[in-house]
Amino acid sequence: MIIAVIAAAVVLVAVIASVVVLRVRSSKELGQGSTKAPLSPPPVEATLEHGEPELDGATPSVEVRAPEEIDALPSYRDRMGRSRGLFEKLRAKVGRASFDQEDLDEVEEALIRADVGVATTTRILEAVTAAKKAGSDLDLLELVRNELTSILTLRPDGSTIDRSLDDTAADDRIPVWLFVGVNGVGKTTTIGKVATARAARGDKIVLAAGDTFRAAAGEQLETWGERSGAEVVRGADGADPSAVIYDAIQRAKARGARLVLADTAGRLHNKVNLVEELKKIRRVADREPGDVRETLLVLDATTGQNGVVQAREFLEATGVTGVVLTKLDGSAKGGVIVAIEAELGIPVKLVGLGEGPADLVAFDPEAFIDALLNR
Ligand SMILES: Nc1nc2c(ncn2[C@@H]2O[C@H](COP(=O)(O)OP(=O)(O)O)[C@@H](O)[C@H]2O)c(=O)[nH]1
Ligand SMILES: [Mg+2]
């Protein structure tokens, strides 16, 4: 009996300890400049292996789940399996300071296949060759990694790339994040994931169903609203998206909400319409009490270099402040991140590593590069 009581007490302490850890971890979240924190709180990891503790009335207040129900935190390495193998042939060179033209050709092919793009691949090869000439004794993959790190860390002027998400409520205004991008890239899903993470942190969030072009888009957003507990403001199908977003901002103001996440349509009758529509949305959403702090361009990693083309078009239409790269989990073309940053100078802020509510993480260049090079 004494042993049973002790065992129960140990289990209870473990449960409480894990809850405390979760609180700490989930408080470092999105919009607070942290690059490694997951965007949603990790699932409760507590399990009771020995049945109910026999303490009087002391039932643990956490949800207890079986191990198989616990979703693991997404990691770049686990989820970027399709990129693995690109640099496989070069692994034989690890630790060896010598390499020849054939090895450089191999690097070039791997980078192009990863959709890093021709211009950026050339830049990387030049940097590697220059480092070698200067007498570096690092191995080939190490040199490639250094150049990738430099591209994903520093701006051309030498300053550090800022990937933080701005949700400052200046002058009592309501921060608004607009999500733009073509159809099917993952705008609505990303909004749902961000809402889930922020709501779990205790923030009151309002979602604006600004994609009034497709009826299903509003319904999809409502489902995410129900899941996350965020309020959703919807207009009639075909309603003016700017008006819907403006209503959502008014609602947020009335409710004392922390942030408005606004969905937009990815396609209208033609491109000119879409550009004009987005300009109008931005203008209206930026009117008091709204304050557009982020315009996030959502791009699908599986489309690779096509994302760079899309990005150029959206850059012209709206002042994009950051990129969300989705579907990195299903893509061997994740190298497009490097092209987006090197060629367009827009920071990738968030990365989608799956379809679930927790599968969105702040972009972590180091983890990404390690997964890409499979080091
Ligand atoms: N594997 C994977 N699928 C995703 C990710 N993000 C979105 N999706 C899927 O992409 C599809 C289109 O997403 P949706 O949000 O409707 O795109 P939207 O048209 O831009 O709003 C859906 O089936 C999503 O589940 C991701 O990071 N990984
Ligand atoms: Mg959508």
Summary keywords:
375 residues; alpha/beta; Four Helix Bundle (Hemerythrin (Met), subunit A); Rossmann fold; 2 domains; 8-stranded mixed sheet; binds guanosine-5'-diphosphate; binds magnesium ion
Explain what the structure shows.
- By secondary structure, the protein is α/β, with parallel strands linked by helices.
- The protein has two domains: 81-151, SRP54, nucleotide-binding domain (Four Helix Bundle (Hemerythrin (Met), subunit A), Up-down Bundle), CATH 1.20.120.140; 172-364, P-loop containing nucleotide triphosphate hydrolases (Rossmann fold, 3-Layer(aba) Sandwich).
- It is 42% helix and 11% strand.
- The chain contains twelve helices and eight strands.
- Strands 3-2-4-1-5-6-7-8 form an eight-stranded mixed β-sheet, sandwiched between helices.
- Helix 7 links the parallel strand 2 (205-208) and strand 3 (231-233).
- The longest helix is centred in the first third of the chain and has 26 residues, at 2-27.
- Mean pLDDT is 83; it is low at 10-38 and 40-70.
- Magnesium ion binds at residues 187-188, 211, 217, 263.
